[in-house]
Amino acid sequence: MSDISSLTWMRRASVAGAARSLRSIAFGAVAGLMVIVFTGCSTVDRDMDIPVGRAYKPANFTHAGPLPASLRRVAVLPLHSRVWTDEEMGSLEEAMTAELAKLGRFEITPVSRSDMEAMFGVRSVGTTAALPATLFAALSERFGADGVLLVDLTHYKPYQPLAIGVRARLVEIPSGRALWAFDDLFDVSQPSVAVAARRYYQDNSRQTYPLGHTSGILQSPVRFAKYVGSAMFGTLPPRDSS
Description:
By secondary structure, the chain is of the alpha/beta class. The protein has two domains: 1-46; 61-233, Rossmann fold, CATH 3.40.50. 45% of the residues lie in helices and 17% in strands. It contains six helices and six strands; from the N terminus they run αββαβααβββαα. The protein has helices spanning 3-48, 86-103, 113-120, 135-143, 191-204, 221-233; strands at 61-63, 73-76, 107-110, 147-157, 163-172, 178-187. Helix 5 crosses helix 6 (221-233). The N and C termini lie far apart (106 Å).
């Protein structure tokens, strides 16, 4: 090979190598930019998933002061409704009762519908209905209950926008004294309710973004029922510390 041919070949090889290097650098830069862009978008989306606005706070409740020290165990009766079936309410009842247990105001003892039927001939009792004559004595004897909690499902819309209405009453055994009462409707179509529900989910969900996006609670009746239970039972008065 002549010196000129050799030099020409070397120049071509050098140019080809430089081109490959430039392509590698360009590809790496683009890939790096894509990572930054997508990571940045994820961070922005996650930062944007912060409920903004006034959060709803239930106000339609009353109580007789701090819960008495003698109220150690409460029998929780099945969720009551004149419209919805036991099966339709089962998951809602479980979700709300779990929120009551988390508060730790007192020990809770859920009473099953079969137990209610066996003891009183009914599967549930409403907050405004006449109580079975033997209710207090039976709950005290069988469950060692110092109180009884009754909860009504007054409204339920399981499709978007979700809505759950609840009425509740906590009664002391054996006096029959009402210790706390609550009545409210939680409707996602109200912006303040949606904000409060999303904040609850943000504080309590163990899922990470994006699976844990707070808007998920506005689409799941069971998740929304957890928020409702938390908001409702959060209005219970504290225990008497004297």
